[in-house]
Amino acid sequence: MTQDLKTADLKTGGAQGYLRIATEEAFATQEQVDAYLRMIRDGEADLGLVSLWGFYAQSPSERAVQIMERLLDLGERRIADMDATGIDKAILALTSPGVQPLTNLEEAKAIAARANDTLAQACTRYPDRFIGLGTVAPQDPEWSAREIHRGAKELGFKGIQINSHTQGRYLDEDVFDPIFRALVEVGQPLYIHPQTPPDAMIGPMLEAGLDGAIFGFGVETGMHLLRLITIGIFDRYPDLQIIVGHMGEALPYWLYRLDFMHQAGVRSQRYARMKPLKKTIAEYLRSNVLVTNSGMAWEPAIKFCQEVMGEDRVMYAMDYPYQYVADEVRAMDTMDMSAQTKKKFFQTNAERWFKL
Ligand code: 1DF
Ligand code: MN
């Protein structure tokens, strides 16, 4: 990880004309990490969990050690890191894949609920720095729906994060409908965050070292969102907003082809699942999808997304602690972009969509 130490010029407080609100920021709990390690040891983990958490929780490398320390801190160390890079507010979520790989349902729900309590306490301790997104256990959709209500009403959360597939299953299955219904009831967005692809998909990626954040994360998460769009999730729930990171997990770049081929597929009735929708995929991206630039501090991609999806739908994220790089904040500050658009990117879009 390229990390520089000359951070004195980055300040919080908004002197540059906007606050910096980072929207895809991660924390972990020790019992979450311990559960992953136990599953890896007992041979219960899928290939992706072994690759991802076998690395972060066990490697002595500087990257893994630093990231573990930062993930487990919801106190002064995190605040100091935010101060050092000029991050005014962090929207925090339990790191990927949350409790979704856990096969013991009671354990999964208990770890998720305690993570939510821990996060809510941290947000109470630092009310103008931390904002919470809840975590759920999609393995139990009805419990998850109740936890969404608890998060919104009792814990002050502003949405939830689900880490893509749950043991190879995707949210477009009818059984997960209670989760979407609850989100619409509380009027909050769903952040679909990547995790490693399921065993049915990961093979050729793992073989080449491409299963993680470098590529597998994005491909699998982009597919997940596309599955939801093509099943008609936004015809069922027109007010639902779904957020994805990493500049839209490549879907904006593919959009022309996605729409051309989707319409060809619908007309030809080639797939029973591919039914006519009320809008085009491009139109759903402009009415129901939000993107963040987590992991993509890259001006051309940001401007492309603003053009394709509208400048109200593109938000800033750092992806702390996985991509804690002060120079990326500077690169975003100095983008060639109107002051008004930059303020939307860093601050007001997040305030609007997370209802801060
Ligand atoms: C990584 C990247 C891991 C992201 C993450 O969570 C994550 C990584 C486990 O680099 O291994 O959230 N990310 O969003 O880019
Ligand atoms: Mn992330």
| SSE string, helices as H and strands as E | EHHHHEHEEHEHEHHHEHHHEHEHH
The tally of beta strands, per DSSP, is 9
Beta fraction of the residues? 5-15%
- What's the architecture in CATH terms? Alpha-Beta Barrel
What general form does the structure show?
Answer: globular
The description of the largest β-sheet is: 6 strands, parallel
Widest β-sheet, arrangement of strands: 4-5-6-7-8-9
What layout of secondary structure does this protein have?
Blueprint: E1 21-27, H1 30-41, H2 47-56, H3 62-71, H4 76-84, E2 89-94, H5 105-125, E3 130-132, E4 134-135, H6 141-153, E5 160-162, H7 177-186, E6 190-192, H8 199-207, H9 216-231, H10 233-236, E7 242-244, H11 246-249, H12 251-268, H13 281-287, E8 289-292, H14 299-309, E9 314-315, H15 326-333, H16 339-353
The chain binds 4-hydroxy-3-methoxy-5-nitrobenzoic acid and manganese (II) ion (MN).
Residues 24, 26, 193, 245, 294, 319, 322 line the site of manganese (II) ion.
Features:
16 helices; binds 4-hydroxy-3-methoxy-5-nitrobenzoic acid; 50% helix; alpha/beta; 3-stranded parallel β-sheet; globular; 356 residues; TIM Barrel
Can you characterise this structure?
With 356 residues, this protein is of the alpha/beta class. The protein has one domain (19-351): Alpha-Beta Barrel (TIM Barrel), CATH 3.20.20. Helix content is 50%, strand content 9%. The chain has 16 helices and nine strands. It has helices at 30-41, 47-56, 62-71, 76-84, 105-125, 141-153, 177-186, 199-207, 216-231, 233-236, 246-249, 251-268, 281-287, 299-309, 326-333, 339-353; strands spanning 21-27, 89-94, 130-132, 134-135, 160-162, 190-192, 242-244, 289-292, 314-315. The strands form two sheets. Strands 4-5-6-7-8-9 form a six-stranded parallel β-sheet. α7 links the parallel β5 and β6 (190-192). α1 (30-41) packs across α2 (47-56) and α6 (141-153) packs parallel to α7. The longest helix is centred in the first third of the chain and has 21 residues, at 105-125. It is globular. The model has no long low-confidence stretch (mean pLDDT 97). It binds 4-hydroxy-3-methoxy-5-nitrobenzoic acid and manganese (II) ion. Manganese (II) ion is lined by residues 24, 26, 193, 245, 294, 319, 322. It comes from Novosphingobium pokkalii. This is Amidohydrolase family protein. Pfam families: Amidohydro_2. InterPro entries: ACMSD, Amidohydro-rel, Metal_Hydrolase. Residues 99-356 form the Amidohydrolase-related domain.
